[in-house]
Design goal:
The chain is of the alpha+beta class and 362 residues long. 34% of the residues lie in helices and 28% in strands.
Length: 362
């Protein structure tokens, strides 16, 4: 059932937001009806939801035997969310009359509250009073990579942005150029072209709220695409040093080789983002090869939906870029710290231990 901005207006702390911020969150909210006895979550669960009871009641059972009831028609319970602590401290089950709950992504709520507060400051440069004038910001904050951005980094990010006016037809970055700044489109549209199979091909269009330029920054490799403005407008430019300080650390999730090996055994897909010529020399057995330059184009067709991914390269630089790209495509992804060399050293150590154990038994 669609959720309206009006549905959020009486909920704390959403009631203090601008109407446009509530409208955005309403588009992302999910209303769930629970039958009597149906669980919402159990003690120990780890989830990403902020949950409000908007109909009926939930029984909250604690492991120590305590029990409370969260009722939608209560002046207190009907206004405040369930305790957000994770792992969950209690089990929540619908009472005999059932329950209706609203679920919102906890990180996204925090980002929108932070944006709403930051943009009210008199010295904030990027708030637009026009209807729909801030849609770029909501789209940007919705991107999976930006959802992981600590809320404390958000104000620093907007302070570091520099606005750049661009004209129709202007080339912002060119394929083959050294890595430079990171860009967000505040207003305008752009095309992305890259060399594939020896020819320049149009691979994507960008609009308000879309970002580009991260691949070269994360991999420390030349730009892998040309971005040309189709409509003039405004960009927000982030210097390389600010990108590396504010965006790179929280976005990239790193795994030690032993952790990566265990996740692979548990079903994660291992993706080698090096060139085929490199893979032919040595690689991790069973890894799927998708070169970084083709990742955006080939990932939807080659990577299974719903399974976690582990990416690697020789050193970790290209896999950092790959993790950023895949996170923006809404994959759950991590990169191997130390790259292929670290993984091969782990395998050699495990083999040596196994051989020593076999020899001692013999």
């Amino acid at each position: 059932m669609p959720v309206s901005s009006h549905d959020l207006a009486g909920l704390f702390p959403l009631d203090a937001l601008r109407p446009e911020s509530r409208q955005y969150l309403a588009r992302e909210a999910v209303e769930v009806a629970l039958a009597a006895g149906e669980p919402l979550f159990v003690a120990g669960d780890i989830d990403e939801d902020t949950t409000y009871v908007v109909g009926g009641a939930l029984r909250c059972d604690y492991p120590d035997g305590r029990r409370t009831v969260h009722q939608a028609d209560s002046l207190l319970h009907g206004r405040y969310p369930l305790n957000d602590a994770v792992p969950r401290r209690f089990s929540a089950v619908a009472e005999p009359g059932g329950a209706v709950v609203l679920r919102l992504n906890r990180r996204q709520v925090e980002k929108i509250i932070a944006w709403d507060q930051i943009s009210r400051r008199s010295d904030f440069r990027f708030f637009d009073e026009r209807p729909g004038g801030n849609e770029w910001a909501y789209r940007l904050l919705q991107a999976p990579a930006f959802r992981r951005l600590p809320t404390g980094n958000l104000e620093r990010l907007f302070q570091a942005f520099v606005e750049q006016v661009v004209a129709s037809g202007e080339v912002v970055v060119s394929e083959g150029d050294p890595p430079g700044d990171f860009y967000v489109i505040r207003e305008g549209t752009a095309s992305v072209a890259k060399t594939l199979d020896g020819a320049s091909k149009l691979v994507a269009y960008l609009a308000d709220g879309d970002a580009f330029g991260e691949d070269g920054l994360l991999s420390n490799q030349p730009r892998n695409a040309t971005v040309r403005m189709l409509q003039g407008g405004r960009l927000l430019r982030l210097a390389r040093t600010d990108f590396e300080a504010l965006l790179k650390p929280p976005v990239i999730k790193w795994l030690l080789p032993a952790e990566a090996a265990q996740r692979a055994r548990d079903g994660a897909v291992v993706v080698d983002v090096r060139l085929p010529e490199e893979v032919a020399q040595r690689s991790i057995h069973g890894a799927l090869n998708i070169p970084l330059a083709r990742l955006r184009e080939d990932a939807p067709a080659l990577l299974p939906a719903g399974r976690p991914l582990i990416v690697y390269c020789n050193t970790g630089e290209r896999s950092a870029a790959a993790a950023f790209v895949l996170s923006r495509l809404e994959y759950e992804v991590a990169a191997i710290h130390g790259g292929l060399g670290a993984m091969l050293r782990l395998q050699a150590q495990q083999q040596a231990i196994a051989e020593a154990a076999s020899a001692s038994m013999g």
